[in-house]
C-alpha cells in the first residue's frame, strides 16, 4: 500500500499539519492508516494520546535509522496507507524513509528559507533515485497560505518552483484555526465543533481537496522496497 512521506529540511514548514490532515481525511473514508512520527517534537504522538480519537489510525513513535525501512514495509502489510512525518533536517532516518516512499510531499511556506529547505530535500531525492535506481515520485504543497492575499514572498516561491518544473499541488493548505485546533482537541476535522472553532466548514473543504490531490498522485504500481541504504546507525 502507498507510503507517503512528508519532508522539508527546514523546521516549521507545516509538515506535521499536512501529514495529519491527510491521515485524518483518509481514515474518515474508512481506510486503515499507520503514521510514523519521526519528528523529534512528536506532535502527532501527542495528538494520538488525546481523549478524542480518530478510528482507523495507529501511530508509531519509536524508530531508528537501522529499523525504519523494515518498520515501514511491515506496516504496508496491514495498512491501506502509511504516512511518515519526518524530521526537519537531513539525516539517516529521512534518507531511508524517502528511499521506500511511493510519494514524497514537500510542504513549503511562502518564504525563501522554506524554499531552500525544500530544495535540499528535492536534491536529496535525486541522489536517492540514483542509489535505488528508480524514480521517487514527489510533489510540493504550499502551506499556511492566506486565503485572501498572495504575498510577494509567496509569488517568489511559486515562480521559483515553476522554473524548476516541480509538481505543485493546485490546492494549498490555507492558514486555518481549525487545523491548529486538531492538536488541541484531537480527532479529525469532522469532530470539531463549529460553534467553538471558527472556519470549520472551509477547513474541511480545503482538507478534502488537498487530500484528493495527494491520493491521486499516490496511486502507483508497487515497487521493490530498499532497506537501509546507509549502513551506519545513529
TrEMBL record:
CDD domains cross-referenced by the UniProt entry: ParAB_family
Source domain of life: Bacteria
Pfam families: VirC1
PANTHER family attached to this UniProt entry: COBQ_COBB_MIND_PARA NUCLEOTIDE BINDING DOMAIN-CONTAINING PROTEIN, P-LOOP CONTAINING NUCLEOSIDE TRIPHOSPHATE HYDROLASE
Record-given protein name: ParA-like protein
Taxonomic placement: Bacteria, Pseudomonadati, Pseudomonadota, Alphaproteobacteria, Hyphomicrobiales
